[in-house]
Design goal:
binds magnesium ion; alpha/beta; binds S-adenosyl-L-homocysteine; binds 3,4-dihydroxybenzoic acid; 219 residues; single chain
Length: 219
């Protein structure tokens, strides 16, 4: 691809540039992305983000992983790559159609279990064994409640990751009446007020636009 000539080249839109850079790194680094099929919206993490989730899980030595929001199981398959022999990954999905698609994509992957139903209804039924990594990626309006569950199901050293906290920058709008924006703002306030959490936010750009992760380590 012919590229522009640096900052100030208005012919190349930022979005196209992010996508080209995403494609460049994704071809070379996470080149072996997991394959999923099924008719789902294109809202899964990108390949580079999926690899980041895998690396984070490996960095914390995750043997038990919890995911909220499975969709087709794409991020699930990245996270599952980090599991050691005998490790477990539980993924929660509310939508019966997506759950069926994900079950097909996850069939035969060792240690992965999908639990169907709204997460607030299925979380209370999980064994109280703490998880080593918890990836929050279901409905954004409920992120504040999910943080409470994540803390309950954590131990010192657990890493909590929340997706889509930037929302193309909408997160800074304190007057927003978008329940997703309100959810991620409330999540951030709760994380900030929780002395057990050491947290940061990472803004991301790429093929899926402008968004970001919140990362919080439990102590
Ligand atoms: N983690 C996936 C993307 C998840 S998209 C990936 O990156 O590959 C968000 C998912 O959350 C959707 O599949 C949606 O059906 C699911 N979801 C929405 N509300 C939910 C709820 N209350 N409980 C569990 N899952 C929910
Ligand atoms: C959207 C993106 C996501 O990563 C997600 O988990 C849910 C929704 C979206 O762009 O609508
Ligand atoms: Mg997401």
């Amino acid at each position: 691809m012919r590229v522009g000539h640096g900052i100030g080249d208005s012919r190349w839109m930022a979005r196209a540039r992010w996508t080209a850079v995403d494609d460049y790194f994704a071809q070379l680094l996470p080149s072996d992305e997991p394959q999923v099929s099924g008719d789902v919206p294109a809202i899964a993490v990108t390949p580079l983000q999926g690899r980041l989730l895998e690396l984070l899980a490996r960095l914390v030595g995750a043997r038990r992983i919890l995911e909220l929001g499975t969709l087709a199981g794409y991020s699930t398959l990245w996270l599952a790559r980090a599991l050691p022999e005998g490790g477990r990954l539980i993924t929660l999905e509310a939508d019966p159609g997506y759950a069926e698609i994900a079950r097909a994509n996850l069939a035969g992957v060792d240690g992965v279990e999908l639990i169907e139903g709204p997460a607030l209804e299925t979380l209370p039924g999980l064994e109280p064994d703490p998880f080593d990594l918890i990836f929050i990626d279901a409905d954004k309006a409920t992120y504040p409640e999910y943080l409470g569950w994540a803390l309950r199901l954590s131990r010192p050293g657990t890493l909590i990751v929340a997706d889509n906290v930037v929302r193309a920058g909408a997160v800074v709008d304190s007057e927003s009446d978008d329940p997703n924006v309100r959810g991620v703002r409330r999540l951030t306030e709760l994380v900030a007020a929780e002395p057990r959490l050491t947290a940061t936010a990472v803004q991301t750009v790429g093929g899926k636009g402008y968004d970001g992760f919140l990362l919080a380590l439990v102590s």
